Every structure is written in structure tokens, then in C-alpha cells.
Amino acid sequence: MLHLKEFMDERIGIINDELAKYINKLNAPSNLKKSMNYSLMAGGKRIRPILLFATLQAFQKNLNLGLPVACALEMIHTYSLIHDDLPCMDDDDLRRGKPTNHKVFGEAVAVLAGDGLLTYSFQIIMESDQFTPEQKVALVYELAKAAGPEGMVAGQLADMEGENGNLSLQELEYIHLHKTGKLLAFPIIAATILADCDREVKKELAEYAKHIGLAFQIQDDILDVEGTTEKLGKTAGSDTENNKSTYITLLSLEGAKEKLNEHLSKARAILERLPIDTTLLLEITDLIGKREN
Amino acid sequence: MLHLKEFMDERIGIINDELAKYINKLNAPSNLKKSMNYSLMAGGKRIRPILLFATLQAFQKNLNLGLPVACALEMIHTYSLIHDDLPCMDDDDLRRGKPTNHKVFGEAVAVLAGDGLLTYSFQIIMESDQFTPEQKVALVYELAKAAGPEGMVAGQLADMEGENGNLSLQELEYIHLHKTGKLLAFPIIAATILADCDREVKKELAEYAKHIGLAFQIQDDILDVEGTTEKLGKTAGSDTENNKSTYITLLSLEGAKEKLNEHLSKARAILERLPIDTTLLLEITDLIGKREN
Prior knowledge:
Distance between the termini of chain A: 17 Å
Helix content of chain A: over 70%
Number of strands of chain A: 2
Mean pLDDT of chain A: 94
Number of helices of chain A: 14
CATH superfamily of chain A: Farnesyl Diphosphate Synthase
Largest interface: A-B, 51 and 51 residues
CATH class of chain A: Mainly Alpha
Oligomer: homodimer
Radius of gyration of chain A: 18 Å
Shape of chain A: globular
Low-confidence stretches of chain A: none
Order of helices and strands of chain A: HHHHEEHHHHHHHHHH
Number of domains of chain A: 1
Strand order of the largest sheet of chain A: 1-2
């Protein structure tokens, strides 16, 4: 695994620097910048940017081409966490072991920091001089669809409405495909846009993205049962405590693990038949099944 | 004034229909669509779309060319009102005489409806088949800048931080130029993008937009003192009650009216020297100085 680990360490350093620069150059009230920066730098795993860079690598493209998109994506992911943690939503005091944004800056600033990150993410893509107008249009279209009322926002609402209810497996998949799946798939789709790859490869990679998105979520449910609070950085067993429908409650622990392996196998099979160098993506796929937080 | 009134009535009908269509075709949870639709259709004056259409008219462009942008703009304006009314922000129960979004749908749905409208607005512009990729890029760039952390979001934060404080005239202008000015200017800038007009005219119209944005806000402050709750559809005298810095507290009522007329005169002077048919824009400029709500 050394190969992927080195790749990740290097890329995480680069993206953290770039995110800081984007906030720093903003002509905005200092408290707004501080609040946006606080959550952006709160120790995210940068899994979405890593997926973007690994897919660009598979196409042998210059990785830095993906930097503005990776930053935009991480801003949208961060905005969704800030709003999700609000008292009127999940009401979380801690995120990755640190006080949540509204605990530090107050609710009003947290709402605005989220709004600001979301809007800035589209600006960043438009400002970049690395893309053609056609690429910019495709990137923002896909990003808005993945994050908006047909994507992540739909998933968050469905998740909220489904709480404490008895969901079917189909309803649970709808939630995950939208709440987390679409934004996990976006970096892979974005890389295909930047690589101008052909339609067939694009379709295969979109299917791959769907499988790893669901695998990621199933592993999340498994970790909630098998993980420790220390390793997770959040309270283990909270799904059971909150009486949430999960892959475990619907399929049993054994069934959930089978489902996880099914998605990972399908994801691997796609990578293996593609005419590109998928070494890194294969390692990431393995990592998703083995992650401990 | 019949000319402008007919133009407005017709255009408001068209944009209301189009907004309803945009929400209707969304593939999203029904409660999310209802909540987005509720605030979009809550009786807004559509002043921003009217400015866009009137500017397109000045360039003798097909007005329907502006429809997707007008809808996107109205969605962003509406999102900002929903988030602004939240208990953690202005905590308003009524907006245009109707219960605010969170009063009807709950806070969590209101947050998500705002997030959804904001994100969808960018998607709409990208989806349109009426614009070139270059126009789409310019439109989304200007819209994100006007609405984001260097525009409206900055103004909202500065406004919040300035509450109950003694602001200078310069600080008050910063707040208005950002909180409302940039999004009032955007439709005019958007029309210059769609008309592919030359740089000099663009610059003049941007200056015009700045003046009417400030005039609009000064008239808002005057109406809070001179208007009636019935005509305003919101509580008159609330600025005084909340001890807010306004153009009246800083310049006196007389001084505020002078400032208003100064901006309107400058706005008219720009329109009169432009080589386009600014009849409608001149009427709108007059209307801003005479509006009662």
C-alpha cells in the first residue's frame, strides 16, 4: 500500500495549501473567512480530491489540472457538513473530534460560511484559466446536479424524513446514492471531463463510482457497529442508539459485509477491463473495504 | 407610467410560469419541492428580473433569452430571504404578509430549500441551450461573485456584525453595496453579457446599476420612517426600534432624500448618454424613487 499512501500524502499537502490560498485571497469580512477556513481545515480525509487525482492519473493527465475542481469539491463537501451539523439539522457539537463550526462561530455565521463555500466553489471553477469554456460548463453542470436538489440536498431531506422510520433497502439506497453517492462520484466524472475521454469509458467509470459510493456507505454502517469511538473520531454505535435504518438492520452484519464485497467486486471488475492504468484506483477500492475511520 | 406597468405585468406573468416549471420538473423529494416553490411564489416583486428584461429591451434583444437567467437570479434572491429569516439570523415570522418558510416547513427543510435553490440556480444556467459556453461561463462567474463571500454573503455578515453598532456612512455603504447592491446590479450585467455589448457601455451600465442599488436601499430606509405597515407588508419603524444605523440616522431624513436624489440623477444621466433605447430603464429609475413598498 506504500504507493497509494505516498500519493495521498503528497496530494493532501498540495490541496490543503491550495484551499488556504483560495480563502486567503478572498476579499471578504475576516470572520467569514475564518469560519470558512476553520471547517475546511478541520482534518478532512480529502477522499473526493484523491479520487479525482487518481482518475486523472489513470488517464496520464497532469494532476494539477484537477486542483481547482478538487478545491471546489472539498468546499461543497465542507459546506454540507457545516449545515448538517446545525442545531436544526443533526445538532452535532463535534466533528472529527473538534467543535463544530456553529459551536465556535455561532449559528448565523455557520449558515453564512456554508452558503459562502457553496457559492465560491462555482466561482473558483469559472475563474480557472486551465479549462476550456466547454469543460467549465460541463464541470459546473455536473457539480450542481450532484450537490443540488436532485443530488445531495435531496438525499439530506430524504435522510431526515426517514429517521426513526423503517426504511426499505430501496429507500436506504436512494438516501445513500444521493446524500453521499453523487458527490463521491463527481470527482471521477470530473476527471473524465478533464481528460476528454470517450463516452464508453465515461459510462463505465460512472458505474464504478456508484459502486464505491455505496461500498463506502455500507462500510460506514459496519464501522458504526464494529469500530471504536477512538478510531472513528465520532461516537460508535450511534446508529443503533438513534434507531436508524442501516444496512446492518436491513441485511444483518453478515449480509451487509456480503453486499459490501459485491459492490467492491463489481467496482474492481470495471477497473480491470478499462484500457487505462487503474493501479491507484484499484488500491483506493481496496482501501474503502478496509478503512477503520 | 402605463408603458412600464404593462411591461412588468406581462413579464411577471411569464417569469412566474417559468419558475413553476423549473420546480415542477425537478426530480426531488416532494417536500423539498413544495418548500422551494412556497418561497419562490410568495409574491416577490421580481424587480431583478424586470431590470434584466428592461436592459435586454434597451439592446433590442429577444426578451425570452433572459428567462433562464431571470429564474436563476430569483432563486438566489429567494434563497437569501429564506436563510435570512431563520431564527438564528433575523428570526422573522412573516415575509410579505405570509408565514416565513421555516414557520411552514420547519427550520431543517428551510435550510435545505435555500441550499437547493442556490445550487439549482447554477444548474439552470448551464442547462439552457440558448447561450454559448462563453456566455454561460461569464454569467455564472458574475452571479457567483455577486452572491458569494465577496458579494451578498459578505454583506449579510457585515450587516449582522454591524447591528446595534454605530456605523459610519462608509460602513453602511459597504453593507448595502454587498448585501443588496451586487444582486441588484447582476441583472444589468447579465444583459450586457447576453447582448455582447462593448466594454464602454458595460462599464457605464455597471455604474448605473450601482447608483440604483444604493437608491433602492436609501428609499428602503426612508420608507421605514415614512411608510405604513399596511403598505410595506412589514412592520414600519422597525429600524428605529432595533436601533439600526440607517441613512436616516446618519444623514437625517432630509439628507437621506438628498442622497437618494443624487444617486437617481447620476443614474438618469448615464442612461441619457448611452447609445441605446433606455426608455424603460428611465421609468424604472423613476419608480425606485417613488415606490411605496
